[in-house]
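quick one before i forget lol
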Amino acid sequence: MSWLLDGLLIVSLLVTAVAVLLSRDLFRAVVMFMAFGLLMALAWVRLQAPDIALAEAAIGAGLTGVLLLDAVSHFQRGRLREQPPGEEG
């Protein structure tokens, strides 16, 4: 049963990594990156490294994700300001 959980975790990590790389929407890519960080924290727990798992969850998924979301919002606001009036999207 343990190998099934490990296999599912590996597949989930690979799927989220590919989704981050192939995403054209920045917001979606950041959210998937945060999900990848949380899955990676679970992988560290499975490898019996709770200190690294805690650091990954706090820094990798939490702090970095919030900073990237803030950067995406600033980037999108800047793009909206640069558009000429009457032009959308």
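fyi The mean pLDDT is 90.
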